[in-house]
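Final report, closing paragraph on structural work. Over the funding period we assembled a curated collection of sequence-structure pairs, and we close with a single example.
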Amino acid sequence: MIHKETIGAFLDGIYTEKSCFIAKFFDLKFFIDPNETDLFIYPNIPSDVKHAIRISWGIDLDEEILYVRDSSFWNDRNQGLVITDCGVICIPDNDDMNDRIHILWENVEHVEYKDELLYFFGYGDRDNNCPIHISHFLKGTSDSSKQGAGDIFQRIFTRMAQTQIPKDQDDIYEKAVEQYNQLMNEGKEDEALQLAINYREKEQNVAFTPEIAWLYHKKGQDEKAFTVIDEDFNALAEDNLTWKGKLYYTKYSIYDDNGDYTNARKNCLYVKKNIPSDVNWEYGDVNILDDATKDFLRFENEYTQHFLEQPYNERKLIVPVQSYTDLSQKKLAVVDINNLPAINFPMGHPVANQLYVGHPYIPSKYIPFENYELELIEDKIREFSQIMQYLGATEINIESVNSSSNNKDVNTDQKLSGGADYKFISGSGNGERYITNKLLEDISQHINLHQKFSPKKTPMLPNNLVWYQNEPSWQRLYNQRMQGALLEHEERIETKKSQVVENSELKKISAEVKWLFVQANGNWEQSMEEKFEAHENAILSIHVKFAPLDSLGKTSVQDTIKGTIKNTMNSLTSYASSVGNIVHKILPVDMTDIEKEYLDELKACLEEDGEISSRERRLLNRLRERLGITEERAEELEVFLLNPQLTEEEQEYLDEYKICKEEGEISSREKRLLDKLRVKLRISEDRARELESSLDLN
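Its predicted structure, as stored:
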């Protein structure tokens, strides 16, 4: 980098600095002889001379050569003295090129001339200096030449050195702030951003980082904003709580501006717990601690009220605590035990600092982590058995087939972020285990089942199903059974397919839970460690025998339709309340216009109360005959009408509509937003009304 100020100081000194000689003042050229052979002064230095000097003296291309005194015998350009904008280089003897003096201007405080020596003083006491004889700078040997040149050189060199002395950081910052504010007032945000970025990089200072982050945010580049904040946050010393707090104050303000209260809450807690009480924000003279305290209460309320609206993976694991110490966890959702979201726990729960797992299909239900697998698998098997009973099962037999484990147990030492050491201790990989697999034992004790039935009723689906909508094999089994040919079936259910916490996650989860426990001054025992051991996969075999379909009670087509409607709607309603997955009806692709006309009338009959009266059935039969539709085809079409399907886009729209309906009458603003969402999802107005009607009918 060319130092223009240094070059300017040199040129100004050459022509303005004078020394007294015989009662007159003369400039430097009076005492030296720039003869264009062995003494050159910028800018009159030929390019070939510069080239030779750079080669012989190892001077970089980005240095400007200002002064050359060649003292080599044949003007070989390998001995003498060179002044550049970066410093002074002196080679007294070209027989020893390593014996050289190299002084950088940035290391020089001032220069003094005395007794034919130019002393280059560095920072510190007067002993810290480097002397160079004046003869290396000029050809003249008279005392008057030496004195005159030395007198001028000392002032020129001092001024050159001062151009590279770092300016006071406060002055630099104040100047940058002034320029930044001026650019912002002029509406030049891009230029202001670049100025702030340059200051950050050049000065290695975080003073402008909040401004950089916020301007990135205004440009829609939040990822860049958070990257800058996190980089500077991590680079700061641990005890620099003022600036760490300011950076996270900016970070949570950006999240707040985006309406992301979950992440705003996490970063706000850090500020609330760590920022010194006397730190004010430069803009508006706001006390950061007071502001963060108020903001955290707001974020906490928003987080609690809308907790169940979060994606399942973000609320899957929760730990209630008596007081917040840290919210930086990636696997856990930490909640206040005294201000819990609208969730349900088993009797005797919740317990502070204990881990709970959310039911995958019942949002409000949370289960203690240590036995969640057993409870989920029991729940799943109970529902399957209930479905089988409703479909006319005569016998159900459940047994544990086997278990296997591909998990290699590892002894791992890790360190918590706060400095506490801990160890995961599990079984060995050679078959010898330090702990027993409690899950397998509990399954063998609780789930072995053998039941016999004497079915009489027409097969149907039971109400309030939870797992069914997410089990395609069960749905296929239902269709097979309703066709009448299925008399026996074997279903295998594996615990790993109901496992919502992967074994690969367990170590990270254990570390986060332990850290919270340690912060709460708890004692982490081996029994707690064992809760996070990887469980083996249990395989359960369920053998079902059915009564022949023709031996069960028969009903009219009308009653079958009514019963199917009722059970299907109840099932869908139950499922919708748990996961918001209402589905719509899709007709066969080969349907004729006549068949569509028939189904339009059927849907019209069902829309009022979900039932078909005897009078409506008589009229529908008359219409069917006139349209030339057989009784069998009519029954097929009517049953197919109830077959649930839904596209992802339609599901998303219906989910949002359902939430709006649950909160009361849909406002005009909500209608406008729903319509915008419909357009984005490429759903027609007619289709949207059909989806809404299906939910309203329920």
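Confidence is low (pLDDT under 50) at residues 403-436, 555-560, 571-590. The chain is about 45% helix and 15% strand. We thank the funder for supporting this effort.
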